[in-house]
Amino acid sequence: MHEVKIIKTGMIRSEDDITELGFLDWKRTIRGPGHDMRNIHRWLRGNMKYTLLRTQMQKFPQRDDFPEWRIHSGSQGNARA
Description:
Radius of gyration: 16 Å
Helix content: 10-25%
Shape: extended
Largest sheet: 2 strands, antiparallel
Oligomer: single chain
């Protein structure tokens, strides 16, 4: 069995929570980062729970059920840990 460590859990309560999680690509904003952050925060605040995990992605088995995906769990060497 592989080890999964829970780093942090919480609820989105502020714009800082969104920034800290780092799941958005701010280079691809529609109306600019500030405007987009306010809108995203309005949608997620109090509605989105999160869990940050640390695990070894390369320990997961190869999968061939999505052949059009060149990278998938277990096949990428540079996954963010």
